[in-house]
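User: Run a structure prediction on this.
Assistant: Running it now.
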Amino acid sequence: MIDNESKKNLANITKHDEELKNYIVNLKKRNFYRYDTGREASLSALETVNNEIEGFIGKTEDLKNKAIKFDHPNAIEASQVKIKEVEVEVGLMQDLWDHIAECQLIFKRYMDNTWEATKTDEMEEEVKRLERVLKAMKVDKKCNAYIGLIEEIKKWLKFLPLCGQLRDPSMRDRHWDMIRKKVKSNFVIDANLKLFDIYNLELGKISEDVEEITDQANQEAKMEKTLNSIEAFW
């Protein structure tokens, strides 16, 4: 009877371990791995996973106690390792979503800035810090949530330097007209203009044109300064 119960428990441990294997495989299909899920829905889904893990832990403890009685305590170790893997994974995904929320909050604040109050250098340094924190995380770099955020950060790191060039004092109305023509928009540079409005122009698509126009503005400003100096001298 003891031998039969021992074999039965070993079979149950093997079955339990297979269930955990399948659970880990299907875990990657959960919605909290997708960037478009959003933080609240993702944290709710992660909480569900935590509850499911508690169920696995309870069953594992029961099987462990029986394994000890039947003198095969090591048989349950593989299941314990898998549970730990899931716990670590859930913790990492929670950290990732907290970071995503922080980034999105900062990006929203940027969007609400007026064009006149935009400080591109400070913003660019902050975005680089967010990128460093993200890349240091030990989450799956191939998961959609990670890729979605890194792509968003890259957009800002491409957009902000272009904004810095456009905010140069050398930019005149004629240069802005050239930008308007390129983006096919008659936006107005005034106190009501928000960074959101400039962001929606998708300057990244015409980055070479922006650089060419701003470089032209800089060169013309230097020429104007030289001519004014000559005129003042004479």
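Helices lie at 2-27, 39-69, 77-112, 120-136, 144-166, 173-183, 195-199, 207-233.
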